[in-house]
């Protein structure tokens, strides 16, 4: 199966898309995460690609600073993983492998702290990494692990826009296009998320593009 490390930025748009359970976390962390999500969506969906890597590196440094102050905040670890993953997608090539390994460490740390943080988004992000990154000897890609993580994400958030999108994309990668189409069509029915308008619109457009490819293949 063809790996698409160079398109991680598209697939791991993941992270600007999870809604924040503000009442379930420290208000300072919630405010910081809201700002990070908004900035991520602006970079990913509005900024020219030539400028994105530098902006994502700066955003990653901002998240690292926050983690230093809140080392047990699983939500910040999720976002650190997402930002690094998106940066890897923009960077592309073998040089991106260092970034995706950093992303994996952040996401695994998040799972140790709170596997249900941000509706289980660490599972979704890890699943996406495992089916997008090349396998051994170049990388750590593993379709079996990808499937396990994506299914865990769906167990936590069965109607989630992102969880369904990545599950549909994974199924397409595996050649199960009929099942992929069902997941993607269900994803389009997910309710809008307050404060996530730009991210939701971007994700839905990605879903429509993938559905279009499925219809033409």
Automatic annotation (TrEMBL):
Residues making up the signal peptide according to the UniProt record: 1-24
Domain of life: Bacteria
UniProt keywords, alphabetically: Signal
InterPro entries the record matches: TPR-like_helical_dom_sf (IPR011990), TPR_rpt (IPR019734)
Gene3D superfamilies with a match to the protein in the record: Tetratricopeptide repeat domain
One Pfam family named in its UniProt record: TPR_8
Official protein name in the record: Uncharacterized protein
Source species of the chain: Modicisalibacter xianhensis
Lineage, broadest ranks: Bacteria, Pseudomonadati, Pseudomonadota, Gammaproteobacteria, Oceanospirillales
């Amino acid at each position: 199966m063809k790996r698409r490390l160079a398109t991680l930025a598209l697939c791991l748009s993941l992270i600007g898309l999870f809604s924040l359970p503000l009442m379930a976390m420290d208000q300072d962390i919630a405010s910081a995460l809201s700002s990070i999500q908004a900035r991520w969506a602006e970079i990913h969906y509005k900024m020219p690609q030539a400028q994105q890597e530098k902006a994502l590196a700066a955003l990653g440094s901002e998240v690292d600073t926050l983690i230093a102050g809140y080392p047990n905040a699983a939500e910040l670890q999720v976002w650190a993983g997402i930002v690094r993953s998106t940066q890897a997608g923009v960077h592309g090539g073998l040089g991106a492998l260092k970034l995706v390994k950093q992303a994996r460490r952040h996401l695994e740390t998040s799972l140790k702290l709170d596997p249900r943080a941000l509706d289980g988004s660490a599972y979704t992000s890890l699943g996406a990494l495992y089916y997008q990154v090349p396998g051994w000897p170049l990388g750590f890609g593993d379709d079996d692990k990808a499937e396990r993580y994506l299914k865990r994400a769906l167990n936590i958030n069965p109607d989630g826009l992102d969880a369904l999108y990545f599950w549909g994309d994974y199924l397409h990668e595996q050649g199960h296009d009929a099942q992929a189409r069902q997941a993607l069509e269900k994803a389009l029915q997910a309710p809008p998320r307050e404060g996530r308008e730009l991210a939701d619109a971007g994700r839905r457009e990605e879903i429509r593009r993938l559905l279009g490819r499925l219809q033409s293949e």
